[in-house]
Amino acid sequence: xxxxxxxxxxxxxxxxxxxxxxxxxxxxxxxxxxxxxxxxxxxxxxxxxxxxxxxxxxxxxxxxxxxxxxxxxxxxxxxxxxxxxxxxxxxxxxxxxxxxxxxxxxxxxxxxxxxxxxxxxxxxxxxxxxxxxxxxxxxxxxxxxxxxxxxxxxxxxxxxxxxxxxxxxxxxxxxxxxxxxxxxxxxxxxxxxxxxxxxxxxxxxxxxxxxxxxxxxxxxxxxxxxxxxxxxxxxxxxxxxxxxxxxxxxxxxxxxxxxxxxxxxxx
Length: 267
Hints:
The chain has 267 residues and is α/β, with parallel strands linked by helices.
């Protein structure tokens, strides 16, 4: 296994576990770290970030885990908490206002990002932006258009396999587009399925989030490409499945599969 790669998991599905229960569970699955949802109702909440995140990091270190990123709002308390806990990335997404339109929404987002650059500088923490289906920046090219003028030490791109696949991207193409700013890779997978029959007046589709081997995009090709370009950093399995009741079963399968791909991937 390439030691430059850190496998983390988004712990959103395990909101009710204590920190020790979470650490033991994630460690036994074989992960190196976590992405923590720094949100209301979780083990640490945004209002307690400065004290709570370092305490969380210390407890998780007892299980051989580090916090590779948090999913939260990039306000100063979160920056300060991340800096104190040694967490390098705050993950966010950029929403699109359908009334304002895409380009106006993008321009507004750029203004907001400009305002948080001083916080990135002061605390040494990067903001990573992830693309997402729906009323968000959806694709790799959209991410690049948004952030290409920002210094990648401040603003990074988080390329998400499932959302890249849903947007019709080839894995290698999506990763290459954002490579200059790439700070994390999300591994999950999804496909479209029709939810009504041919007798309907109009077809209706839904997005179905599945295991790594069964979606629109190839995790194998992702691993090959990342190895080819000597990627180092976090690969986060987001533990997002439409069949939520099987999340423990599926994430256990997916981390084994992901690690096997990086072991087999050739330069």
